[in-house]
Amino acid sequence: MSKILGEEKQEDIKQIEKQIFERAEIKSFHGNNSLEVKLIKSFEETCVYLSRYLSRNPKELTVLEFYQALEVAIEQDKKQRNGKSYPFK
């Protein structure tokens, strides 16, 4: 690749990559407070919330069905609460 781009371009690429990695917020994927654990807990909480509105298990829905059901449930919740409160943190 260096033959195609030349050494000067390689240095530019390294500088850009360095800037990207420096700006990226590093997430932890291990331990009790990891991003993975937070995402799983959030998904489980959302499934519990959706189960109040559905006759099916939310975990068995397709991605499109899941998010559509979530939108409908949130809208129903807003109507019941007169638009004052959002059900999630």
Major pleated sheet:
none
Distance between the ends = 48 Å
Task: Give the overall pLDDT as a whole number.
Answer: 82
Low-confidence stretches: none
| Count of individual beta strands | 0
Descriptive tags:
89 residues, mainly alpha, 4 helices, 0% strand, elongated
Short description:
This protein has about 90 residues and is mainly alpha-helical. Helices cover about 65% and strands about 0% of the residues. The protein has one domain (about 1-80).
Any overview of this molecule?
There is one protein chain. The protein is mainly α. The protein has one domain (2-80). It has helices at 2-5, 7-23, 35-51, 63-80.
List strands and helices in order, with pairings.
Blueprint: H1 2-5, H2 7-23, H3 35-51, H4 63-80
